Amino acid sequence: MDTHDWLAERFEEHRTHLRAVAYRILGSTSDADDAVQEAWLRLARSDSSQVENLGGWLTTVVARVSLNMLQSRKARREDPAGSHLPEEIAGSAETAGPEHQAVLADSVGLALLVVLDTLAPAERLAFVLHDMFAMPFEEIAPIVERSPAATRQLASRARRRVQGADTAPDADLTRRREVIQAFLAASRNGDLGALVAVLDPDVVVRADHAVVRTGAEPEVRGADAVAAMFFGRARAAKLALINGITGVVWAVGGRPRVVFNFTLSGGKITAIDLLGDPGTLARLDVVPLPA
């Protein structure tokens, strides 16, 4: 085995971890793949014999590349903070490879990514590397060009934002699917009791501007009001993987018209976002699931 092949083999041992780091920083699978590819190019051009800890070295490179990409994205973005809809892990279990499935199983969820997208780039990077990957602040500090103490403060501010948003999804993806299936069945069958049972008392339904134009209310709050909204409806809606995470889609002629993105906590639905904007839908990978 020549040096290049040996290096490529070593790199592949770290690819899944590197992609997970980049994805959490960038919220985009395509951008994460670009960051990982750039890390490989830099490794191939470097003197790897001087690298004592390859995994740590590659993580640092991916983090720096991701931070640059995030800063560039923030600088050119014209939409308000938080209005960008990050990608989730795309694809279904039938089509995803082992690495893809591993990242999906460890997914942080769309709701958390939306909150992370409102953070400043340095805050997001510090939070992701420390809180999600246990990297010491002393190692993060050079990446964000701050002292360890200042880096700790970045992560602390980010943590408060994340905790305040209360967006952590259920870890059990199977349970998530069961809850959403129960919601869909209760809605179709007009079972008000079953519908209320899967809703958090303070559940909120939010509709984007495209869905509002069809006659929906911009926001509906409370289990009773939300249950009444969906009572006897959703007959044409179907369970689907929305960028790899269980949700619901209403499609016409095989073309998605409205996507239902669910946020769950404690086995209850706490929020439903109705997405109908064509630009938003074009960025989503929607895979209908069998009934």
Report what the structure shows.
The structure is a single chain. The chain has three domains: 1-76, RNA polymerase sigma factor, region 2, helix turn helix motif (Rna Polymerase Sigma Factor, Chain: A, Orthogonal Bundle); 108-167, Arc Repressor Mutant, subunit A; 173-288, Nuclear Transport Factor 2, Chain: A (Roll), CATH 3.10.450. It contains 13 helices and seven strands. The protein has helices at 3-26, 29-45, 54-76, 98-105, 110-116, 121-132, 137-144, 148-165, 173-189, 192-197, 209-212, 223-230, 278-282, and strands spanning 199-207, 219-221, 237-242, 245-252, 255-265, 268-275, 286-288. Strands 2-1-6-5-4-3-7 form a seven-stranded mixed β-sheet. The model is unreliable at 78-107 and 167-171 (pLDDT under 50).
Helix fraction, binned, reads: 40-55%
Q: Largest beta sheet, briefly? A: 7 strands, mixed
CATH topology of the largest domain: Nuclear Transport Factor 2, Chain: A
Strand content: 15-25%
Please write the string of helix (H) and strand (E) elements.
Answer: HHHHHHHHHHEHEHEEEEHE
CATH architecture of the largest domain: Roll
The helix-and-strand class reads alpha+beta
Report the top-level CATH class of the largest domain: Alpha Beta
Radius of gyration (Å): 21 Å
Q: Overall mean pLDDT score?
A: 81
Into how many domains do the coordinates divide? 3
For the terminal residues, how far apart are their CA atoms?
Answer: 50 Å
Low-confidence stretches: 78-107, 167-171
Q: Would you count the extended β strands for me? A: 7
Tally of individual helices: 13
Shape: elongated
The neighbouring-strand order within the major sheet is 2-1-6-5-4-3-7
